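>> Question from a student workshop board

For tomorrow's exercise we were told to take the sequence and the ligand below, predict the bound structure, and bring the output to class. My setup keeps failing. Could a helper post the expected result so I can at least see what it should look like? The ligand is pyridoxal-5'-phosphate.
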Amino acid sequence: MDNIKSNLLDIKENIEKACNKVNRNPDDVTLVAVTKTIDVDAMKMANQLNICEFGENRVQELIKKYDFFEKNIKWHVIGHLQSNKVKYIINKVVLIHSVDSISLAKEIDKRAKQKDTVQDVLIEINVANEETKYGLKEKEAIPFAKSLEELANVRIRGLMTVAPYVFDGEENRLHFRKMKGLFEELKSVGNSNVDARYLSMGMTNDYQVAIEEGSNMVRIGTALFGHRN
Ligand SMILES: *Cc1c(COP(=O)(O)O)cnc(C)c1O
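>> Workshop helper replied:
Here is what the output should look like for this input. Compare the format with yours to find the bug.
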């Protein structure tokens, strides 16, 4: 885990390079450190290096780790979320990346209302129509966003995708480009609970390409912490 520091330097350098290519400011790209299966000690090391946004894909794991950290950590739910787990995370997580059904959105709205808060969420898109992946189809995204209008305690902050697993991130470029187009469309949806700011895409194998195509939130695990067990 001594590598976290040098891994982070590499990642930052790559983010900067990708931004330079397309004239963007690296400060506009949020790094979410994906901490699934990573132990609290390694996460503390990351935190000491000023990483303060953690992404978990399982609610149970997030809740278990939550109390080990100060309130300055921003927790993200990035994995598939079951409705019956929503009640555990409201007021704990800044962003739920994986909203892909009306029933889930309604449950988030209900639980957020009970706690007198508004939950920020992203709509997950299955951009390559993969059988094994969660998320809405590209063409469902905007109608879905519009259909959530009456959910006053849910705020739609953007889109997320898990692109196909590839060795060369270049292979995902057109998927990312498609997502960026959809993101711009979402921004122009006039509903009061839509305030699209985040385009969450790009992982270890493809984050540079994702950034070149407009991602402003990358979710990186392996490149930071090494291979998971
Ligand atoms: C595991 C995971 C990541 C990070 O993947 P790496 O390839 O290890 O960077 C990002 N997003 C989601 C939804 C994940 O489950």
